[in-house]
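Retry 2 of 3 after timeout on previous attempt. Resubmitting structure tokens to design endpoint.
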């Protein structure tokens, strides 16, 4: 099959799904709110709506990252995407996953493992098997939005100018997931170019340089104060965090990996009863995914970006129980620090 036929098949499949359940609603699930997932969800909802389907978008977790908050506020997206906790089943409900492809995703909350999505569009490698009567598309790509744009273009849909926020969100998804168009494949770039004329540069710029809260700079300061370096490896932490500040870990890791001579960075923090960390490496001879699995097991993972950088992280249960209390906070942090450093500096 040539490329064009593959797209025709995908579109026909989505159409069949919509036609086969005329009164059913397609529930698009966002496992983790980020610009790529938001753009892909909005884009897919435009596609299925154009085929006459009812659509709802549900998101898991919270809209914590300041950029996500800017995007959601600017386009008043709370009207179109609702927290998963508000989901109420309707007859003929169908599900779609974007920017995620596992139904066992713990982020799906109550729906975890219970749904069988009819549409999956994702650019992460761990994939759900292809099956009959479904449109499952998982492929290595810079961004999920690229795949959605490819579908829109293959359908020859012209997004009207009064729905300008759709190209805007799709472009933003590619832009952020490819690190400002640096980790970009030819297809991501082609998709980006095909919609960029509908993206006003000023407005786009506002979303790129979104305002950062004061807490970000405090966390940056702590991360700098807590740095420990062994050889080319750097480990640091920002102590106890709120869910809202969780994304500071990856932002800071992205900054620190640029440190000349440093090839592995791990930034961690404690959120509630869990340790969360972000890891980056730019040493191609040591695959980050292997290294993280060796240190932390299955609750960690990493992907290789198109420019050869490793990008990942993980979540570790703390189960503090009796030890949960402000009076022993410092000691707890000190113990985790020691353990993290032993693992990261001690691994191959
Ligand atoms: Mn993505």
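Retry 2 succeeded. Sequence:
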């Amino acid at each position: 099959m040539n490329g064009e036929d593959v797209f025709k098949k995908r579109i026909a499949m989505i159409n069949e799904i919509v036609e086969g359940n005329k009164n059913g609603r397609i529930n698009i699930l966002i496992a983790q709110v980020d610009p790529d997932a938001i753009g892909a969800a909005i884009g897919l909802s435009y596609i299925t709506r154009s085929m006459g389907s009812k659509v709802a978008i549900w998101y898991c977790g919270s809209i914590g990252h300041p950029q996500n908050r800017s995007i959601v506020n600017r386009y008043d997206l709370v009207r179109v995407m609702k927290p998963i906790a508000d989901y109420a089943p309707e007859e003929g409900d169908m599900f779609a996953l974007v920017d995620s492809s596992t139904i066992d995703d713990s982020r799906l909350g109550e729906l975890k493992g219970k749904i069988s999505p009819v549409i999956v569009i994702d650019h992460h490698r761990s994939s759900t098997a292809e099956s009959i009567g479904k449109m499952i598309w998982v492929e290595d790509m810079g961004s999920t939005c690229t795949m959605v744009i490819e579908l829109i273009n293959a359908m020859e849909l012209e997004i009207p100018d009064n729905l300008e926020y759709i190209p805007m969100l799709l472009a933003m998804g590619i832009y952020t997931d490819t690190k400002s168009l640096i980790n970009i494949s030819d297809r991501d770039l082609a998709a980006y170019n095909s919609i960029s004329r509908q993206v006003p540069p000023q407005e786009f710029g506002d979303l790129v340089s979104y305002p950062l809260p004061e807490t970000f700079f405090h966390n940056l300061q702590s991360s700098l104060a807590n740095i420990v370096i062994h050889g080319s490896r750097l480990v640091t932490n920002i102590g106890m965090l709120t869910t809202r500040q969780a994304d500071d870990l990856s932002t800071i890791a992205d900054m620190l990996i640029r440190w000349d001579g440093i090839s592995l960075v791990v930034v961690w923090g404690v959120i509630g009863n869990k340790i969360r960390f972000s890891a980056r490496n730019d040493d191609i001879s040591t695959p980050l995914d292997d290294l993280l699995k060796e240190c932390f097991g299955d609750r960690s993972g990493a992907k290789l970006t198109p420019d050869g950088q490793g990008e990942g992280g993980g979540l570790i249960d703390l189960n503090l129980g009796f030890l949960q209390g402000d009076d022993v906070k410092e000691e707890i942090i000190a113990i985790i620090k020691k353990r993290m450093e032993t693992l990261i500096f001690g691994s191959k």
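Attempt log closed. The chain has two domains: 3-208, 215-346.
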